């Protein structure tokens, strides 16, 4: 006892955290974990994955390998994800054995099926685009070959499973776009005239406390549909920002009401429509590309926040102390092999610019190889610097000109 208030004494490391996936998100989680005194064990099929050089142990194997998932779980105090694509059935069985998996596998299973996710949002009164219909793989083949007519134009098709980094989504504006139809189990939703794409990062801890970060604005690469530039805070009116945060809290609460363990950081991606409405697009039950700027611009990064939440520690401040812009460094089209950076000097000479290189062994078209965050006293100044770097920095392959 120190004084009159009883305090909890923690030993270090507080937890051994198992991470399903060893990509860049796992690497950034691990970097923060090492600062916090946490041990990290990761599972990834690639022995040279980004997390491999810094984690305490790497289990090499498929994210769908039951034995490898069980090995990871048995060695960890808590298991989490840096990517959704894993075997939720096995994880649910592991959870029943008393191993802590956060967020819960049942929640991950819901989110992994985009149709179930959509129906969940609708059933809980969360504003989202209209669901038109579910379609089987066989039906999509008929639509693509024009043997069957689409219900309407324009519309958006989403694959039920497997979509990631712009894949698994097709915008069908007219008959000339029928070649874009995805031949897979999927669904159609209404096409939305978008003013901006925004996102809210929300963290929830084991005690049920919830915090949100400032709303961010997302600009996507039209060629790859991958996040190209992120601006924080979003350039939207305060009332719109507050409304987006309320909707994000409602999403998290919908999981709680469904008896799903919603613990950790969640990214709620939204559309701000031309008419001023806010519609939830998709949810990621993990740290996310839209929160990378928090490493430099916020008192508590999304990575530290996620670790705090799943380790049973208090949430940190989500206050943003500096305007920030983040640009993804994507592999240039036509380049494969060992990566090389054109314009590295420009990044290092730019005041307030922070380079994050993921350490992937090979580059490819539109592959995420790193990111740069720019913080500044002025958001406009940060945007200007980001645009200049976007024009001058390219990821190619060694030996290329």
UniProtKB/TrEMBL annotation:
Its EC number is 6.3.4.18. Catalyzes the ATP-dependent conversion of 5-aminoimidazole ribonucleotide (AIR) and HCO(3)- to N5-carboxyaminoimidazole ribonucleotide (N5-CAIR). Catalyzes the ATP-dependent conversion of 5-aminoimidazole ribonucleotide (AIR) and HCO(3)(-) to N5-carboxyaminoimidazole ribonucleotide (N5-CAIR). One of its GO terms (biological process) is 'de novo' IMP biosynthetic process. The gene is purK. Belongs to the PurK/PurT family. One of its GO terms (cellular component) is cytosol. Residues 118-311 form the ATP-grasp domain. Signal peptide: none annotated. This is N5-carboxyaminoimidazole ribonucleotide synthase. PANTHER family: PHOSPHORIBOSYLAMINOIMIDAZOLE CARBOXYLASE (PTHR11609:SF5), PURINE BIOSYNTHESIS PROTEIN 6/7, PUR6/7 (PTHR11609). SUPFAM superfamilies: Glutathione synthetase ATP-binding domain-like (SSF56059), PreATP-grasp domain (SSF52440), Rudiment single hybrid motif (SSF51246). Homodimer. Keywords: ATP-binding, Decarboxylase, Ligase, Lyase, Nucleotide-binding, Purine biosynthesis. It catalyses: 5-amino-1-(5-phospho-beta-D-ribosyl)imidazole + hydrogencarbonate + ATP = 5-carboxyamino-1-(5-phospho-D-ribosyl)imidazole + ADP + phosphate + 2 H(+). Pathway: Purine metabolism; IMP biosynthesis via de novo pathway; 5-amino-1-(5-phospho-D-ribosyl)imidazole-4-carboxylate from 5-amino-1-(5-phospho-D-ribosyl)imidazole (N5-CAIR route): step 1/2. ATP binds at residues 114, 158, 189-192, 197, 281-282. The keyword Metal-binding does not apply. One of its GO terms (molecular function) is 5-(carboxyamino)imidazole ribonucleotide synthase activity.
